[in-house]
Amino acid sequence: MPGPAGMTRGEPPAAEGFGHLGPRAGPQSPTPDSLGPQSPTPDSLGPQSPTPDSLGPQSPTPDSLGAIARLCSSCLPDPPDEEELSGILYAPDRPAVLQGDPQVGIVATGIDQDRGFVKLLCVDPAHQGKGYGHLLLEAAETVLRKGGASSVTVGADAPYFLYPGVETTQTSMLCLLERHHYKRVDVNYNMAVDLRAIPPDPGGAEPADPGELGEISSWMEQHWSFWKSEVLRALSKRTLMVTRDRHGLSGFCAYNVNRKGTVGPVAVRPELIGKSVGTRVLLGALHRMRRDGYLSAEVLWVGPVVPYARVGAQVSRVFFVYRADLG
Question: Is the same domain home to 138 and 63?
Answer without folding.
Answer: yes
